[in-house]
Write a structure and sequence with these properties.
14 strands, 4 helices, five-stranded antiparallel sheet, globular, 234 residues, mainly beta
Length: 234
C-alpha cells in the first residue's frame, strides 16, 4: 500500500515538470503527507485537453456514498481488481489522474517495531503516481473531490520492505493514463506495471515520520540503523 508520501517541490517546479495549467491554489513543500489531506493532483482539462493542477483530498469517496466514513480506507486501489470494484470501476474508466510526488514511505517489521524507509526514483526526482478521482456531493450541497492511489505487486527493491507498491508511471505513459477518450479500463491498465527497481533507491529514515504532525526535511533524511546484540554473561 501507500500511506505516506513526500512532495517537497514548489508549485512552480511541479507545474513545469508536468506541463500543467493551475487553479489559483497554493502549495507549500511537504515531507510527510498523510491521508485525508488536500494535495496536488493532475487531470486532463475537458475544455482544452491541457493538464490541470488542482488540490484534491486523499481518500476516495464514491459519488454514491452516503457519507465520508470510509474515505480513510480508500486511499489505495489495487490495480488488479479496481475495474471490478463498485467504488473504483467508473473512476478507472472515466476519471484517472496523476499524483505528483518525489518520494514515498513504507515500513518494515523489525522485531516488535517497524522501521520506516523512503523510496525515491533516481536521486529524488519528481514522478507521478497513477490515481483515480471522484466527485461527491455532501448533504449540505457542497462538492468534494477525492482520489485514490493505485497499487501493484512490488518490484525487486520494494519487496524487501513491503508486499505492495504504489503504481509509478513512466513519463511516456502520462498521455495514455490521462486521456479522457480512453474509457476501456483494460487499455488504461496496460501502462500499469511495477516500476523498474534499477531506477529506484531506498534508505531508512527516522521514526519521526510515524507522526503526521512532523513535516519537515528531517523526516526524509537518511539515518543509520544501529543493530544491537544482547550479550550473555556466564
Amino acid at each position: 500500500m501507500c500511506g505516506r508520501y513526500r512532495l517537497s517541490r514548489r508549485k512552480q517546479v511541479i507545474e513545469e515538470h508536468f506541463s500543467t495549467d493551475s487553479d489559483e491554489v497554493g502549495w507549500v513543500p511537504r515531507y510527510n503527507i498523510p491521508p485525508t489531506q488536500f494535495v496536488p493532483v493532475i487531470r486532463q482539462n475537458p475544455d482544452n485537453d491541457r493538464r490541470q493542477l488542482s488540490l484534491l483530498r486523499w481518500g476516495l469517496v464514491p459519488s454514491w456514498s452516503r457519507d465520508m466514513s470510509k474515505a480513510a480506507s480508500m486511499i489505495n486501489a489495487r490495480a488488479e481488481t479496481a475495474d471490478t470494484k463498485p467504488a473504483f470501476s467508473d473512476a478507472l474508466r472515466l476519471r484517472r489522474c496523476l499524483i505528483p510526488a518525489d518520494g514515498f514511505y513504507e515500513w518494515q517489521k523489525a522485531g516488535k517495531t517497524k522501521q520506516p524507509y523512503c523510496f525515491e526514483v533516481g536521486a529524488g526526482e519528481l514522478f507521478g503516481f497513477a490515481g483515480i478521482w471522484e466527485s461527491w456531493n455532501d448533504p449540505n450541497g457542497g462538492t468534494l473531490e477525492t482520489f485514490s492511489i493505485l497499487t501493484t505487486t512490488p518490484n525487486a527493491l520494494t519487496v524487501t520492505v513491503h508486499d505492495r507498491m504504489p503504481v509509478i508511471l513512466q513519463p511516456r505513459h502520462y498521455y495514455v493514463w490521462l486521456n479522457r477518450e480512453i474509457t476501456d479500463a483494460k487499455i488504461a491498465l496496460d501502462v500499469v506495471k511495477p516500476f523498474e527497481a534499477e531506477q529506484m533507491r531506498c534508505f531508512p529514515v527516522s521514526t519521526r515520520i510515524n507522526h503526521a504532525a512532523n513535516d519537515d526535511a528531517e523526516c526524509a533524511a537518511p539515518v543509520e540503523i544501529i543493530h544491537t546484540q544482547r550479550k550473555l554473561f556466564a
